[in-house]
Write a structure and sequence with these properties.
Shape: globular
Bound molecules: zinc ion
GO cellular component, one term: nucleus
Domain MYND-type: 127-165
Largest sheet: 11 strands, antiparallel
Oligomer: single chain
Number of strands: 13
Protein name: MYND-type domain-containing protein
Order of helices and strands: EEEEHHEEEHHHEHHEEEEEHHH
Distance between the termini: 33 Å
InterPro entries: PDCD2_C, Znf_MYND
Organism: Piromyces finnis
Strand content: 15-25%
Strand order of the largest sheet: 12-5-4-3-2-8-1-9-10-11-13
């Protein structure tokens, strides 16, 4: 039986991400593509609760809904601080989630084009660095917009604007612009397309995935070690598609609420907050998996690098649309694996890909499997 759960996978982008309403992007990293071009999110809504720096886009999902009509187009944006230290202190304060919605008939994506002159809606300027609303400008050249001082300073000092700004030397500017592009990319998470596929049923493990995480977890069950049941369930479940980075499981309206796949028994949220706008229940919409960490250019050797077990996103079950509000906040709930450091080792589950690409030797694979096993035992 199909599970009805959509799994998300990372894919190399084959085209630029544009606000095309017939094919609105779902993606990892890069700058946000705003559903509402007139009202991009303001940076003040996404400051980290620990370091106060602007968070960056982790991913955005186009997830339209039938009810109410105002949610005909609907995007969910998930942001986080790039500093792993902040996550260690409080993951709750290091993530933010917002949804943005538009009805089918709206002024931004008119059905008839071109519009008569003067009828095009306003498009807001965007920050050169972060992609949030760019209400500030470089006071010298007036040709770059910024969301805040943090981004302006980054552009000036790190991304070569100090040398590009008002520079008449065309040849030099051309070279510097190349360096600028690279440095601006480094400010964000690497950009990928997010593609989805329905989760396969339990008995259909794909042929090439039979080398075998599920066998490994069975091994664990045979040992006399008391292993967290939730962890085993988690590992077994994702073995159906080991490279999944996201699970989307929104159930609707009259159906029973869906549950995230928790990574351990402890620290499950006991109470889910209600929607701050309409008071409806917030329900589970999707969760990100530890495998996503593999794609974020994280320095694994750094003890303070970004890390998580899973992050579950809850949004208003009614898809409410308060008047004159462009971004409605949702909630995230977090779990590390109960054993510190296991998150990274857990990523070894991605070895299937690495084996296929010939990246790992047999010895290395065995070593990783042993590490995983020890990690579970010491739990
Ligand atoms: Zn922070
Ligand atoms: Zn900015
Ligand atoms: Zn300038
Ligand atoms: Zn609501």
């Amino acid at each position: 039986m199909a599970t009805g759960i959509q799994l998300g996978f990372v894919s190399k982008p084959e085209r630029p991400f544009l606000p095309d309403i017939d094919d609105f992007p779902s993606k990892i990293g890069g700058k946000p593509v705003w559903l509402n071009p007139e009202f991009p999110l303001d940076v003040e809504s996404v400051r980290c609760g620990i370091c106060n720096k602007p968070m960056v886009l982790l991913l955005q999902i186009y997830a339209p809904e039938d009810v109410p009509a105002e949610a005909y187009h609907r995007c969910v944006y998930l942001f986080c601080c790039k500093n792993g230290k902040c996550h260690k202190e409080s993951q709750e304060k290091s993530f933010k989630v917002y949804r943005s919605q538009l009805p089918k008939v709206n002024k931004y994506y008119p059905e008839q084009l071109p519009l008569p002159a003067g009828q095009y809606p306003k498009v807001a300027p965007l920050c050169k660095v972060s992609g949030y609303l760019g209400s500030k400008q470089c006071s010298k050249c007036k040709s770059e917009n910024y969301s805040c001082k943090d981004c302006q300073i980054y552009h000036w000092n790190n991304a070569y604007h100090k040398r590009i700004c008002c520079n008449d030397n065309e040849k030099e500017t051309l070279i510097l612009k190349q360096l600028e592009i690279k440095t601006l990319e480094d400010y964000l998470f690497p950009e990928y397309e997010l593609v989805s596929e329905e989760e396969p049923p339990s008995n259909v493990l794909k042929e090439n995935e039979k080398f075998d995480i599920s066998k490994f977890t069975n091994d664990c069950e045979d040992t006399e070690v008391d292993v967290d049941k939730a962890f085993l369930k988690f590992e077994k479940r994702i073995a159906r598609e080991p490279s999944q980075i996201l699970r989307y499981a929104r159930l609707h309206y009259n159906q029973e609420d869906s549950e995230p796949l928790w990574v351990c028994q402890d620290n499950k949220p006991t109470e889910i907050k209600n929607c701050p706008y309409c008071g409806s229940k917030c329900t589970f919409e999707f969760q990100i998996m530890p495998q996503l960490l593999n794609y974020l250019n994280i320095d694994d050797k750094n003890v303070d690098s970004l890390d998580w077990g899973t992050v579950a996103v809850y949004t208003c079950n009614a898809n409410c649309q308060p008047k004159d509000k462009h971004y409605m906040e949702g909630f995230t709930y977090h779990q590390y694996f109960s054993n510190d450091g296991l998150n990274k080792r857990f990523k070894a589950i991605d070895i299937k890909q690495k084996i296929e690409s010939g990246e790992l030797t047999k010895e290395e694979i065995e070593k990783i499997m042993k590490l995983k096993k020890d990690a579970v035992k010491s739990d």
